[in-house]
Amino acid sequence: MIEAAAIEFYVKDKGGEYNKHDKGYKYLLFNKRTFLEFLRSFVENGWVEQIHEDNIVRVDKKYVLQDFAQKEADIVYRGKIIEEEGLFFVLIELQSRVDFTMPYRLLLYMMEIWRDVFRNTPKKIRERKNFRLPPVIPIVLYNGKYTWTAAKSFKDMIAQNSLFLEYIPDFQYILVDINRFNEEELLEVGNLISSVFYIEQKRDTEVIERLTKLVSTLDTLDKDDKQTFKNWLKAIVSQGLSKHMRKKVSEIIEKNEEVDSMISNLTKAIIEDRKKSKQEGKAEGIAEGIAKGRAEGMAKGMVKGVAKGRAEVLIKLLAIKFDKVPEDMIDKINEADESQVEAVINNIFQVQSLEEINESFK
Fold this sequence. Notes:
By secondary structure, this protein is an alpha/beta fold.
């Protein structure tokens, strides 16, 4: 029987470039127990059972792709099967949008991992006939609303692949698409990571409603998992709230040990905040309307002022050139559009008589 694998854990820091979902998943999968729970619940493969929590070690390392604007592999685990003296890697890429380049990107990440292994293996060992590179198991964790339609095997990105099949490198990645699971499936799994997926499916519309359905599941979580869930939930529920409400939500989640009371108090706080927001929105709308009316009035006044100023300039220019400007012509100039006045001013040196001015304002 193969003993449990010893694993090392790599997590990247994108320096704030990741999307809002990545932060939550990175926080969760950074926890080795949650990572193993994810694999055992949603990746049905025999090698998963060979991984034991006690043998997981986190290592800080980055696999950067130069061809993809400095993209880095999201999460990488390195495992060693003790009895067989072989390494294996688990690569997890977090996605919120369909990426049709995914097989190629994953291949580049895999090449970076193999390059790193090769470079750090003593030359005498890597040049042996029996030297082997470790397997890399790629996983895409996808939480987008659209169906994942990207190719799932590398060969499908190669033209005429059926004709040259034996010469084309190939692999498949494991796709975990959280929005394709139905409610019953996630509630049946009944653990921390499935609860997160369950809320993620409707995080923008039904967080409280879904929390209510998770009461029995959350009550069975141990102290550590419950705290992990609370920390994740605070970030999710607080998005878009005011600083005051974020603090209030955080206090409610932390202080309520019972899930029922936490949900009840959260519901009350959110409803009150929505009512307050609506009232403030009405007040702001009225204020904006008044301000807009004032601004429009000022703008119109300024336009009229500018037009009048340009008319006076033209009248003075005509008086200088022709000594006297008839009253009826002054009226025409004052009533004319600013563009008409400006056109005459620009051509004032070409004007030979007041009759030409009259023609300009007909």
